[in-house]
Amino acid sequence: MSEFKRLLKANLYNPVTPLFMNSFKFSLLFNTTYHCDYECAHCCVNAGPQRDAKYIPQKDVEFYLDDFKENEERFKGVVVFSGGEVTTAYEKLSPQYMPSIMQSALDRQIEVNIKTNGAWVDKKYGNQVFKDLEDLKYTYNPDFFPVEIHLSVDRYHPSSVNRSLKIIEKIAHSDKLRDKVSVALFTSPEDELMVYKEMLDEKKLDKYDLNLTDFTIHAPGLNVAYFDEIPVGITGFDSPTFQCGRAVKNKIGKELDETHKFEFAHMGDISVAFDSENNVELQTCGPAVSVPYLDKKSPFRNLKPWKQIKEELTQKVELEYEQFLEQENERER
Questions:
Q1: How many CA atoms lie within 13 A of 42 on its CB side?
Q2: Which residue has the higher pLDDT, 245 or 179?
């Protein structure tokens, strides 16, 4: 019997109560769209250019920013805008969408994380993205940087190293961006060494007018790279690719077992993800537990409060948890 299952049996590890919903902090995530300019083989949400360019309404985003800020005492104070690819809104929806939802978060003293493939840096609206980042305003003192650009850098995203260096170059040479925006490089364990070796290649750094003069650990979870004595906040981390979404079809990543469906919390955080199809789920590397965030009984666009959503998600996880234990009991008889 695995250690995880032993703890479940002994009731020492319960993913629902009290450790799960009553102790862990909540991270707020908006999968703003499933439309993306890439169709990556490993994508866990099946995003791609063939998916509808449908986006979570700004009013929905602001409603839940307020709801979490006012009514969830264990909200971490960070919001993630992801997809799909959130920057496609510049072409497919409105150039005001992304800067508006970012500013809405900062106005509420909520730090912003943009998860992106970075392809926008080579598009016609690339400069507008940088200008919108420069124009963001905040009136509080964040723990680190108020905005983080979280870049996918791996074999599945063409030219991702070059694009990441272009973005870092722009930040390094902008007075308005350096103190406001940090960069996180997200890669897979099998690509990590390749990515950093390529990024630190002197010829490549020269190409982007980046001369790495120092690299120091500034604080837990935050490193600072110095380009010609100019500090740029950079973090780097990796995660295995699990067989969910398109990765299943392409047989990429780590095979999931039954226990993964209960790994909702990572390092004490629970990620609550709203999407453009009006659902909210507890993000996990296994099968997701989700409920609609719209009240389907109402003829209007009535949004359920977080308190109600939380209760519905908890009930659903508890049910799956009980079914899991029943299946385990059957196997051991």
A1: 17
A2: 179
CA pair distance 308, 306, nearest whole angstrom: 5
pLDDT at 11: 43
Burial label for 108, CB within 10 Å (0-12, 13-18, 19+), is middle
Q: What pLDDT is stored for residue 16 in this prediction? A: 42
Tokens found for residue 155: 């074999």
CA 16 – CA 5 distance, rounded (Å): 15
**Cα(41)–Cα(24) distance, integer angstroms:** 32
CB 117 within 8 A of CB 152: yes
Q: Cα(135)–Cα(204) distance, rounded to whole angstroms?
A: 29
40: tokens are 């990556």
- On the question of pLDDT at 12 being above 60, the answer is no
Residue 13 · residue 23 · CB < 8 Å: no
Nearest to 148 by CA among 212, 82, 214, 211: 82
Lookup result for tokens 């799909």: 84
Q: Comparing C-alpha atoms, which of 215, 43, 25 is closest to residue 115?
A: 43
Widest CA span in the chain: 67
pTM, 2 dp: 0.85
What is the amino acid identity at position 285? C
The pair of structure tokens assigned to 13 is: 């590890």
Residue 142 has pLDDT above 80, yes or no: no
| pLDDT score of 32 more than 90 | yes
* Contact present, 133 and 87 (Cβ < 8 Å): no
What pLDDT does residue 56 have?
97
Q: Find out whether 21 and 310 touch, Cβ atoms under 8 Å.
A: yes
Measured CA to CA, the distance from residue 314 to residue 217 in angstroms comes to 39
Percent of the chain as helix, strand, coil, to the nearest 5 = 35, 25, 40
What mean pLDDT comes out for the span 292-300? 83
What is the β-pairing status of strands 269-275 and 279-282?
A: antiparallel
Return the minimum-mean-pLDDT range out of 126-130, 149-153, 250-254.
250-254
